[in-house]
Amino acid sequence: MYRVAPVAVPDWEIVIARHGATDWSRAGRFSGHRDIPLSAAGRAQAAELGRALRHPQPEIILSSDLGRARQTAEAIATAAEIDRRQIMTSTALREEFLGSWEGLTRAQVAAASPDGFARWASGDIGSFDGREGLVAVARRAVPVLVAHTTGLPRSSGRLVIVTHANTILALAGSFAGMRHERWADLPCPAPGQAMVLG
């Protein structure tokens, strides 16, 4: 069993933003590590999210290295009048690797792997069908959050992380110190939306 103590980030406002929509998300396709760009609607969502997060100005913007997250992070930086070159990207903030599910629709996965699809639909966050699993996602993503908040001088204290749905669940569950079996029950922002941890 994977348990974590609550992640301590005193005096920081941690905002976790989900990237804007893509054509694949609209079609119900699993993206995982596939580098899918934002759709026109996703670009509009990212611009609106940027306007919502510009005050107080983010001190740090961390982003998954995948294009859909980077495009969203760039919209946030533009709205906050931060040089885009200050965005820090990390492969550790990528979406969960989804194995053979990547690029498939829910119906295609249900037909190809009825048992795996049933596990996923019931909230199972484990590693199956070549999926990475959310515990593994937490093990790579949490250290990025800790490294960018621990012992660093701060001014506004707002850190914005731009990432993906399953990575958000892993970070939020770890931040709260929840048992991983409950992470699937956590709320997750819609595409182009954000939540504050803590």
TrEMBL record:
For molecular function, the Gene Ontology terms on record are: phosphoglycerate mutase activity
Q: Identify one Pfam family in the record.
A: His_Phos_1
- Enzyme superclass (EC): isomerase
> Does the keyword Isomerase feature in the UniProt annotation?
yes
Which biological process, per GO, is one annotated for this protein? glycolytic process
Which family is this sequence assigned to? Belongs to the phosphoglycerate mutase family. BPG-dependent PGAM subfamily.
Q: What is this protein called?
A: phosphoglycerate mutase (2,3-diphosphoglycerate-dependent)
Can you name the source organism? Nocardia jinanensis
